[in-house]
Amino acid sequence: xxxxxxxxxxxxxxxxxxxxxxxxxxxxxxxxxxxxxxxxxxxxxxxxxxxxxxxxxxxxxxxxxxxxxxxxxxxxxxxxxxxxxxxxxxxxxxxxxxxxxxxxxxxxxxxxxxxxxxxxxxxxxxxxxxxxxxxxxxxxxxxxxxxxxxxxxxxxxxxxxxxxxxxxxxxxxxxxxxxxxxxxxxxxxxxxxxxxxxxxxxxxxxxxxxxxxxxxxxxxxxxxxxxxxxxxxxxxxxxxxxxxxxxxxxxxxxxxxxxxxxxxxxxxxxxxxxxxxxxxxxxxxxxxxxxxxxxxxxxxxxxxxx
Length: 306
Prior knowledge:
The chain is an alpha/beta fold. It has 2 domains: 6-162, Glucose-6-phosphate isomerase like protein, domain 1 (Rossmann fold), CATH 3.40.50; 178-288, Rossmann fold. The chain has 11 helices and 9 strands. The protein has a 5-stranded parallel beta sheet, with helices on both faces. It has a 4-stranded parallel beta sheet with strand order 7-6-8-9, sandwiched between helices. Strand 6, helix 9 (198-213) and strand 7 (216-221) form a beta-alpha-beta unit. This is SIS domain-containing protein. Its EC number is 3.5.-.-. One of its GO terms (molecular function) is hydrolase activity. It comes from Kitasatospora cinereorecta.
């Protein structure tokens, strides 16, 4: 077992979880976005970032126009054929309010179909097998994206260059076995970079680090990094690229004295599997700092507003 924490244990199940989700994608296909539908994907926190990743994947694959919103920022005046909500707990206030008020047909992906979300969504997709005891989300979020990615695969709508979920799961096994380097644990700041669908992964990596280890993290589209954010990179700080860095970026980061983390190209990790490595870094850094990665300060499993 790589870590004694619940989060560490739950991180390790992800390859199997993704394979289970891929098998479920066909069973749940009728409840998921159909080809050509105009879809809004909503969530809060980690779920919002998975929504961003899926929206970019679906549009790039030609499956249909897709927008991603934080549930609290949903534009009710817009017209959609379907609203897809992601909520691990099934109790998040903003998601429940949205599903109660939205006029479009809705589908909710959740880890607990016994919760109030079952009463406000038109259709449910049950990912209870990927539920977590830790407050910090890891496997549920990535399993949602694996499910949706597998559905695009079934529909023949995976964008060019995006691997199958089977390949991602195999890469995740390598990521689970990865030993976090001491030089990364010693870094004082981390900037996560993505492009297209991996922008959501970069945002999620930054959030995971902040939640679990109180780390100083930022996240940007990789091409935007040069437009200001690169000024923060320096010796003792890291820039982590999900997918192949844009041409010249590695040299630019080297010139700052910062550490570039990038596992891509031939033989490199699938970006979703690379997120597993970022999760492991968050746990390792939390434990190095004497923090409990399962119970971040000021956070609970679900945000329920009065």
